[in-house]
Amino acid sequence: LACEKVMVCVAEGDILWWRGNLYAEAAARARGGGDKARVELFESEGVGHVFYLLEPTVEKSKELLDRIAAFVSAE
After folding, report:
1. First vs last C-alpha separation in the chain
2. What is the residue-level pLDDT of the chain in tens, covering all 75 positions?
3. DSSP 12
4. DSSP letters for 45-73
5. Phi-psi bin for 40: left (phi > 0), alpha (psi -120 to 50), beta?
6. Cβ atoms 27, 6 nearer than 8 A
7. Cα–Cα distance between 12 and 37 in angstroms, integer?
């Protein structure tokens, strides 16, 4: 991967949750593993696929968007 860092977000209740986890693991391996891999996996518990679009005002949606914003703005 050409980017410096990767963030993978999954929802616990999503039927494809396992696939997101595998992608994060594969991305970390492709980047050499360890701390230098800079791959972050963020799991939203108790929610399903695209919950942040269906219920944008719930706390879990805010938590996800705040985490994404922090990840993007971090160096």
Report:
1. 17
2. 678 899 999 999 999 999 999 999 999 988 887 666 789 999 999 999 999 999 999 999 999 999 999 999 997
3. T
4. TT--TTHHHHSTTSHHHHHHHHHHHHHHH
5. beta
6. yes
7. 24
